Amino acid sequence: MALHTRLKPGKEAEYESVHAVIPPDLDAALRAAGVRSWRIWRDGLDLFHVVEVDDYAKMRAILRDHPANIPWQARMSELLDVEDDYSGGDSGLGLVWELP
């Protein structure tokens, strides 16, 4: 699953600092929700995520009200241009091309 998010201006260093250490309970919650890997690249304010998970919709349903994810999402809402409130049918970025 590929995702795109955007930082608020001036939050680049803070975002990277916050992600230097992910809380252990959030790590465990992500893994329990089926996440095998989550990578994030930054280009200016744009963030590009690649999430390796079998069922992205199920992962989001599990994490929506998870006690480890709620404070994390509150923290991210301070840094991201658009808050992820888990209310929509986020389906990630559409694949345009792939080198097989």
UniProtKB/TrEMBL annotation:
InterPro entries linked: Dimeric_a/b-barrel, Rham/fucose_mutarotase
Pfam families: rhaM
Superkingdom field: Bacteria
SUPFAM superfamilies (alphabetical): Dimeric alpha+beta barrel
Example GO molecular function: racemase and epimerase activity, acting on carbohydrates and derivatives
Protein's recorded name: L-rhamnose mutarotase
Species whose genome carries this gene: Amycolatopsis orientalis (Nocardia orientalis)
